[in-house]
Amino acid sequence: xxxxxxxxxxxxxxxxxxxxxxxxxxxxxxxxxxxxxxxxxxxxxxxxxxxxxxxxxxxxxxxxxxxxxxxxxxxxxxxxxxxxxxxxxxxxxxxxxxxxxxxxxxxxxxxxxxxxxxxxxxxxxxxxxxxxxxxxxxxxxxxxxxxxxxxxxxxxxxxxxxxxxxxxxxxxxxxxxxxxxxxxxxxxxxxxxxxxxxxxxxxxxxxxxxxxxx
Length: 214
Ligand SMILES: Nc1ncnc2c1ncn2[C@@H]1O[C@H](COP(=O)(O)OP(=O)(O)O)[C@@H](O)[C@H]1O
Ligand SMILES: [Mg+2]
Known about the structure:
Layout: H1 4-18, H2 20-30, H3 35-51, H4 59-73, H5 78-93, H6 101-119, H7 129-144, H8 149-167, H9 190-208
The chain binds adenosine-5'-diphosphate and magnesium ion.
Magnesium ion binds at residues 27, 31-32, 34-35, 76, 176.
């Protein structure tokens, strides 16, 4: 039997591969043209490491493996940032055998806070946080309203997509794009875009695969 957590991460990796050029093109405009390359390198290494786990590996083990692999294989800023997000989520998942709404909210919150602390950034600085933080808030609001988890993920994706649009309207004050100052205006942030792609892949995966299989 396939491990549902591994399958979900693989779906995210496939989405990064499909969007490799898109992400790299976005980074070419305001960075160093490697974001797609970084994400694909990271998630290809992740696929290899996950393949070596026992089939019964729990969520915490899967998330920790993703984290350590992204941190050790991705050279760019995004590797340690996404790696920290997965590591913090892994800590929350420790000892949990199923993901209910409250756990999912805690996982998501820990991941976003991890990125904020690691990157010393806040919302409005034209980074992945401009997609992820509103996505988290929309997700948590959905769970608070007792909506089914796939619907909450859908709300998170819509918020992340709006976050991407918002990054076009602001100047970068963190990361490589900040070197451009005002010239970063009008451009879409690559990291916010990969964050949306990640959430969208997870959402599509959950919709393909009924929750009771998890
Ligand atoms: N301090 C930070 N906090 C949050 N996200 C950041 C920070 N610095 C950069 N990023 C994100 O990382 C993305 C760039 O990733 P990538 O191109 O892989 O790394 P690098 O900038 O080192 O080449 C940016 O688009 C931005 O979203
Ligand atoms: Mg880059």
